[in-house]
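Supplementary Methods. Inverse-folding protocol.

Structures were first reduced to a discrete structure-token string of length 475. This string, shown here, constituted the complete conditioning input.
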């Protein structure tokens, strides 16, 4: 309508120019103030060697906190990856510091106090811009301004992530034309799938802005509850955690269905109890590592900030002081100390008094698990020409690779590159298989020696995997 008015006279053209100038001025103001560039972080020596922006995006009554790191490669052309962690309730900081980001804690020299940070070279930000979001609300530094807003679910998280992404891109229009990928791991495989469907629906309905979705990346994702739980029995047998005899007896008694069994199914139930005894002391995240307590240092007493809650049998020690007693959870404990420090929160521009006790994984979410399977959504994706990367650690007992491979087979895709090893520096980093159907391509990969999530255990290998996939090279 403004264009028609502007064509009527020279004055109209001047008015149009003024209106366009005002529009661009407002747009640039939105971009400038949608977040804050962070150049220094407590614990890191000197200026950050990458561009970090932090801030909030309002979604309904929720304030969604994010960390955005611009690509260290070619930010004008490299893809944009939206990433959030599983749980549900695990902060995206988990992905940034332990998995795919350009920072890591200096664990070996830690002697108490504020942990130090160092630059990690094999970051996914070397080849893509990454938008880390604390989702759903109640995760990390994301919070609600109303009592009702704290209640979330699989379905609402999918909507929340979609709305967050749209609003962030409106404030950052320079990234709208870049290839967009959605990434998540673990339990967030459910809600990330729903978020992808919301993007496809929004684009189909012509909602603005149009998102240039090219694909998705899911690490050790929960996709179907029944398949996942059943696969644990198969995996336990394959990894010699249970005997051939017990596996065969359980398989026969349960008719290969171990999900939701009650004591009324006597023979099946009893065999499952025997299996439970065999695996109860196994670390589900990595079957080769010691089983440890959930890491959470006491935020009150400074003397206990250097230790962790737990009994003497499960006490977590640093990898330097007592290497043979080291537990993986020691790594996590440093995040609690760092993220709850007032100087850190000030540097990150966290709204004060909104999150009194930051947790790496918030286990007290008001969360409704309202979706048990999203396989049908992935069947729908096979008609949309998307590119997918799905991967598992081969020592992950939380979401075993055999379950992931099973639900992928249910998509009934055509194999274009059959099972083979993929290499990093001439060494086998895992195994991969590639499928294709009507323009849809799915690459599945195992990561050798990795647990849950793989990119935490094998950061270098997972970087190479991501770099090849995101730039359309075969593994």
């Amino acid at each position: 309508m403004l264009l028609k008015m502007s064509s009527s006279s020279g004055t109209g053209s001047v008015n149009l120019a003024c209106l366009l100038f005002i529009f661009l001025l407002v747009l640039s103001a939105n971009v400038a103030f949608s977040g804050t560039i962070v150049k220094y972080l407590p614990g890191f020596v000197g200026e950050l060697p990458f561009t970090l922006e932090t801030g909030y995006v309002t979604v309904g009554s929720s304030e969604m906190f994010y960390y955005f790191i611009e690509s260290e490669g070619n930010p004008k052309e490299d893809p944009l990856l939206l990433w959030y962690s599983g749980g549900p309730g695990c902060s995206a900081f988990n992905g940034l510091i332990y998995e795919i980001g350009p920072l890591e804690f200096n664990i070996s020299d830690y002697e108490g106090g504020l942990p130090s940070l160092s630059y990690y070279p094999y970051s996914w930000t070397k080849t893509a811009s990454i938008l880390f979001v604390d989702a759903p609300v109640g995760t990390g530094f994301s919070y609600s301004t109303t009592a009702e807003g704290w209640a979330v679910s699989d379905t609402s998280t999918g909507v929340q992530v979609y709305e967050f992404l749209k609003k962030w891109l409106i404030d950052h229009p320079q990234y709208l034309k870049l290839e967009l990928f959605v990434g998540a791991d673990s339990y967030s495989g459910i809600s990330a799938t729903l978020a992808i469907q919301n993007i496809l629906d929004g684009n189909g309905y012509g909602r603005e802005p149009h998102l240039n979705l090219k694909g998705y990346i899911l690490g050790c994702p929960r996709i179907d509850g029944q398949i996942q739980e059943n696969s644990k029995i198969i995996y336990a047998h394959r990894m010699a955690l249970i005997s051939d005899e017990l596996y065969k007896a359980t398989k026969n008694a349960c008719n290969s269905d171990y999900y939701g069994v009650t004591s009324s199914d006597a023979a099946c139930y009893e065999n499952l109890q025997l299996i439970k005894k065999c695996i109860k002391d196994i670390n589900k995240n990595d079957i080769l590592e010691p089983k440890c307590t959930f890491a959470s240092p006491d935020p009150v007493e400074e003397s206990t900030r250097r230790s962790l809650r737990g009994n003497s049998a499960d006490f977590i020690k640093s990898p330097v002081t007592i290497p043979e007693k080291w537990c993986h959870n020691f790594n996590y404990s440093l995040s609690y100390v760092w993220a709850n420090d007032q100087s850190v929160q000030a540097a990150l521009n966290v709204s004060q008094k909104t999150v009194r006790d930051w947790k790496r994984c918030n286990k007290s979410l008001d969360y409704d698990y309202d979706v048990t399977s999203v396989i049908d959504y992935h069947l729908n994706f096979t008609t949309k020409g998307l590119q997918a990367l799905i991967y598992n650690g081969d020592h992950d007992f939380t979401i075993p690779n055999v379950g992931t491979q099973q639900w992928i087979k249910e998509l009934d895709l055509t194999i274009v590159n059959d099972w083979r090893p993929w290499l990093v520096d001439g060494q086998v980093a895992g195994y991969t298989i590639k499928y294709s159907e009507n323009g849809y391509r799915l690459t599945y990969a195992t990561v050798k020696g990795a647990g849950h999530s793989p990119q935490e255990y094998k950061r270098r290998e997972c970087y190479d995997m991501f770099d090849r996939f995101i730039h359309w090279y075969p593994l």
